[in-house]
Amino acid sequence: MLSVRDLCAGYQGGRVLNGVALDVAAGRVTALLGRNGMGKTTLLRTLMGLLPVAAGSIRFDGADITALKPYQIAHRGMAYVPQGREIFGDFTVEENLLLGRLGRPRSQHEIPATVLDRFPLLAERLSHKAGTLSGGQQQLLAIARALVSEPKLLLLDEPSEGIQPSIVEEISDLLAGIVAAQGLSILLVEQNVDLVCELAADCAFIEEGQVVARHGVDEVRRDPAILQRYLAL
Amino acid sequence: MGLEQILILALDASNFILAIVLVAMGLVIIFGLMNVINMAHGELFLLGAYTVVLVEGLGGHFWLGLLLAPIVVGLIGLVLEELVIRHVYHRFLDTILATWGLSIAIKQAVVIAFGPASHTVSMPLPYGIELFELTYPVYRLFIMAVALLVILATFLIFFRSRFGLAARGVIANRDMAACLGINTRRLDRLTFAYGAALAGLAGAVMSPIMSVDPQMGLGFLVPAFLSILVGGAGHLAGTLVGASVIGGADTLAANLWSPVVAQIVVFVMAIVVIRLFPRGIVGRWMRR
Predict the structure, then answer these.
(1) Which residues of B touch A (CB under 8 A)?
(2) What ipTM goes with this model?
(3) CATH 2.40.10, domain B3-117+124-283, yes or no
(4) Which of A133, B56, B173, B281 lies most in the core, judged by the most C-beta atoms within 10 Å?
(5) Nearest 10 degrees: CA dihedral of A149, A150, A151, A154?
(6) What are the boundaries of each domain within chain B?
């Protein structure tokens, strides 16, 4: 689904990614783990085309997308739920979802019923200002907004950050259901190890802008030393 | 002052206000979307008026000029955006310098092409309508109708269409909008052209009741800017309120005293309003 090779990127002040190699298999959840400042968010932003690629290549769904712009990458089926959600607070829930649909051809303007069915809480609040929703509801909205484009790959940046456990549980069940039913692939950046263990099939560990190890989630569950090595401060 | 004069004054004020709104709306949309303060917006107004002069000079009718002006100026806007504006988007101060430069260049180009003297455009509807004891020019009512329609259309476009939703999305959060599949480059281009077309239309529709000369843009750019400051730059509704305050005060003071006094009144009022409501009158009532 996604194949990253020797990827270097960063900001004007300095390079953050130093030759990332990463594969995300189709129809599975791959978790990306690492301490703060190791380049997780930078990697997602680079994949989405928000940051320029300095070197290396990104292949997505059989095509080279290294030099494409964010909207072109979105059109090819990649969707992004950024850290902090970045929903449009002054817009209604419905407008937020319609914005997620704007990348589609004109004839497919409607919000797909399948998404509304999965998010009954949002379906009830379509005319509410998104800014009036609780943090957890806003996270659900950000995920729903990404899903209305019917993506092939979802980039999720810390969906559990600052959200009450009951909604984290809900998000986890929801995503697991979508992956199972629709074969969606997810690249999940997450600090919450419970959520990772519940959702992910594979774990990749990032350190100093490089993916330094990969383990199946069973291995990670069996051997706490792995998490200790890459996550402990 | 009799009731009739008050009515005439109100009509004149509405006339001026609506023309300012056409100019200011383009400015506000361009500023909101691209963070560009377009100092050349008055010259886009100017180009609209000169499009009519040119069409009439070639033997065409005023109405043809009025129809062509927004199209011609919109296309000019498209070219300016491609050649100049897009290169300075991210440097706020440079956008002011660059568009100021454009403004001077356009003015001089007009002087070279049409000469420094003023031109007159034929009055397309040379009729009056009886209002109580007085007659009022029908063409001024036409100006108001055109402006109202265009303002309404702009609101519908921005609050009821896919394009408008995308534009508002880009204004709110450019990066996120791009990640949702919105081509922000294309939107910038179209929006700049739309704002330019509005100014061009305003210039053309006002040309029969003004003297068309290379300086005429400034007379609308300044009140348009003041309207935005007074009303609040964050929303189209603020522009309506700001233009009503500025245009209304200007017309009233000019009639009661003189145009010079009107200028002073308007500037003092703008300073007071900005001091009291730094985010504009409408901005004050909006959250954050």
Answers:
(1) 162, 165-166, 168-169, 172-173, 175-185
(2) 0.93
(3) no
(4) A133
(5) 90
(6) 3-117+124-283
